[in-house]
Write a structure and sequence with these properties.
0% strand
């Protein structure tokens, strides 16, 4: 149990490590932001396919049909959340009435952060479930891959939140919450292996769907709208290959 708890804290803490690194770059250039965001998009794209969607199909309770439904459900969920996000601006502490021009930017930032939080839950469950077997080394490999992916995710959510007017303290608090979600998911997975094993194929596919949605709907258009699309494209490819390498060597 001790190793599970430490792993849960490590997986969730990786997001915070990335967030703290993000604070180091106080005034990044637009090109830097686009490259880092694209790099994370590449990591998320690879993780969604290799780390979530394919494992969903390969699960003993999984199938192509369940995976397809899960991916579509995840995308639809993000689409619905996109309509609800404007009502969540109060959590940012930004006065929309005084800064109406911030509304659209806040919506994009919140959608991205919510997508991170949503996909962290089934990722945490996957890590927790893996500890239900006797293969601790395999479980640690899965958790390590998830943690590595969380670092750049934590990095890229900081600058957009600060630039949209959210205070540094509140930004750090929101980043912390996204990591806490993963800790909770890991513990849920460990204590409810039988139940989570049954829902895991759908949950993994659902998470993959949310990630693909936010990559296509928000991250790629954002990184291609400032004249840095060539840099962004190569950064995405490098991010994809980086995560593919981690999966290959850790798997």
């Amino acid at each position: 149990m001790d190793i599970v708890l430490l792993t849960a804290l490590g997986v969730g803490g990786a997001t915070m490590i990335g967030a703290l690194i993000g604070f180091v770059f106080k005034n990044p250039s637009q090109r830097f932001n686009d490259v880092i965001l694209s790099f994370a998009a590449g990591i998320m794209l690879c993780a969604s396919v290799v780390g979530l969607i394919m494992p969903s199909i390969e699960e003993k309770n999984g199938s192509l049909f369940i995976t397809a439904i899960g991916v579509v459900a995840g995308a639809l969920c993000l689409n619905l959340i996109d309509k609800v996000v404007p009502h969540l601006h109060k959590m940012t502490g930004v006065d929309i009435e005084k800064h109406p021009h911030k509304t659209k930017q806040l919506s994009k930032v919140l959608l991205f952060v919510i997508a991170i939080a949503i996909h962290n839950l089934p990722e945490g469950i996957a890590a927790g479930v893996s500890f239900g077997s006797d293969n601790v080394a395999h479980a640690l490999t899965i958790a390590g891959g998830i943690a590595l992916q969380n670092i750049p995710e934590g990095m890229v959510i900081i600058a957009p939140m600060i630039s949209s007017g959210i205070s540094k303290r509140r930004t750090l608090g929101i980043a912390l919450l996204t990591g806490v979600v993963e800790v909770v998911g890991t513990l849920i997975g460990y204590f409810a292996v039988s139940l989570s094993s049954a829902i895991l194929p759908f949950a993994l596919a659902f998470a993959g769907g949310t990630m693909i949605y936010v990559i296509s709907d928000e991250m790629i258009p954002e990184t291609h709208s400032h004249g840095n699309e060539r840099y962004a494209t190569y950064a995405l490819i490098i991010g994809f290959i980086t995560m593919l390498g981690f999966d290959y060597f850790l798997g």
